[in-house]
Amino acid sequence: MPLQHLSAFLGAAVLGFIGAAGMFLVEHLRQEMRTSVAKDVAKLEKDLLKVKLELQQLQNQQSTERSVRQKKPSKAKKANSIISNTTDECFSVSNIDSSDMEFYDFSDDESSQVNSTSSLDLLLKELDKKIDSGNVEDIEESLQKLEDLCLEHPSNPELLYRIGKAHHKLAEGHDDKEVIHKKLNKGIDACRAALNLAPYHAEVHKWLAVLIGSRSNLLSLQERINDGHLFKKHVDIAISINPNDSSLHYMLGRFNFEIAGLKWYERKVATTLFGELHNASYKDALTNFLKAEQLAKFEWKENRLMIAKCKEALGQFKEVLNWLQKAKVGRNTTLDEKVDSDIESMLLKYRDYSR
Q1: 83 in Cβ contact with 189 (< 8 Å)
Q2: How crowded is the C-beta side of 126, counted as CA atoms within 13 Å?
Q3: How many Cβ atoms sit within 10 Å of the Cβ of residue 266?
Q4: pLDDT tens-digit profile of 227-271?
Q5: Contacts (Cβ under 8 Å, ≥6 apart) of 110
Q6: Which candidate among 10, 57, 169, 316 keeps its CA 20 to 30 Å from the CA of 197?
Q7: CB burial readout 68-105, b (16+ within 10 A) else e
Q8: Cα–Cα distance between 288 and 246 in angstroms, integer?
């Protein structure tokens, strides 16, 4: 090839390379711009969600403050309609209207607003003590008070999830399956209404999971499996929000314990009919219960009983007796008398291991 032709070829090649490189560079820059824009959009969406949640909290507060100034509704309103009425009145963050944003009005007396909020907080603490007392009359009285308060504060998730909690406590003390089912479903409705208002509230997820888990014995196999997925979903969310709540680790332990106890053919049938089940072992359950024991601020009878049952399932019989003795002196947090009877029967079974 003549020199001038070679030079021309090399020149064309260089120009072609430069052109290709230029096109590649332009496309690369475009791609970077698209990536950058995508990141900006994602960040903007995240910021918008944060703002929406803040708006939700502010509107909740304004609704509460506005309700305090209004005349208390007549007692003639039936408590039975609280949950359905409240659910209908609950707003969605995605449907916030500018006309609803009354929280920009700072003309009210701020000191009275703070006092009213503080009063409600103090009242809720008192109601929590009564609900946790295990006394049926106290729980029923607290439930009635919460339902009355819900008429004044229809968009308050703190009231709604406590209504669910109270229904669960009352269901524990009943033998009538129809009554139990009715109370559990009322509690679930209350907690779902609370979840619409506060999707990142650990207590809401926790008590919704508790109520869902408590109705498992009243459902068909398929419904129980579906509820099992829901139960674990809400427990996992609650733990991610509040990992230091001992009761959440106890709940996860109970779930894993039940799954570990399934016979192979039960698991096979359930998997064939309804899809893959969650995998869990007694060691997994024991880890959850030991974590709950570590975090608990009191000697928790039910949790220690479950540790003993895990030890039994794992063949660690000498440790079974040790945990049963600890459980016997622990505090019972449920109205279910089966906890004490289980402890007594297992102590009788393993009494020889004390020698």
Answers
A1: yes
A2: 10
A3: 12
A4: 888 999 999 999 999 999 999 999 999 999 999 998 888 888 778
A5: none
A6: 169
A7: beeeeeeeeeeeeebbebbbeebbebeeeeeeeeebee
A8: 9
